[in-house]
């Protein structure tokens, strides 16, 4: 049996961190930087000392005062400088990501950790131009406009904003 974890920056994934080390499994990493999630989780619970310790464990070469910026609420874009991936990478039996470049970067950063790139979604089954035109017409998507499909809810945690009806872009949910 294998536990499968879906781990990203969504608050819906916060509970997973408590299980990672105790029950190693397949960790599907959706965001190559999990610093946002881990800092938010620990700091919102008033656990600044734990955040400081975990950050130092995760990034021992980083300047120790860096965490003071995050603790004071100034994380923002600087989260991207430090990924906070060491704990899930070391606890996993296998790490899967949806991007071959990210997989290569993780293999380089964490030698000895099994990392695989898995394809997200399916390629189009039919590249027939007439069929594409019928689908666009049925869905009301003009030629030249981009069509996005999102499966699941659009939420702030996923960092996907809703698009207003005046734009050429549309999002269809299932």
Label this structure with key terms.
174 residues, alpha/beta, four-stranded parallel β-sheet, two-stranded parallel sheet, globular
Describe the protein's topology.
Blueprint: E1 3-7, H1 17-20, E2 25-29, H2 35-44, H3 48-58, H4 66-71, H5 86-91, E3 94-97, H6 100-109, E4 115-117, H7 129-139, E5 147-150, E6 170-173
Parallel strand pairs: 1-2, 2-3, 3-4, 5-6
Radius of gyration: 20 Å
**End-to-end span in angstroms?**
31 Å
Biggest pleated sheet: 4 strands, parallel
Low-confidence stretches: 164-174
Strand percentage: 5-15%
**How many β strands by DSSP?**
6
Count up the helices.
7
- The coarse overall form would be globular
Reading side by side through the largest sheet, how are the strands ordered?
1-2-3-4
> What is the share of helical residues?
25-40%
From the helix content, strand content and strand pairing, which structural class follows? Answer: alpha/beta
Average pLDDT level? 81
The helix-strand sequence is: EHEHHHHEHEHEE
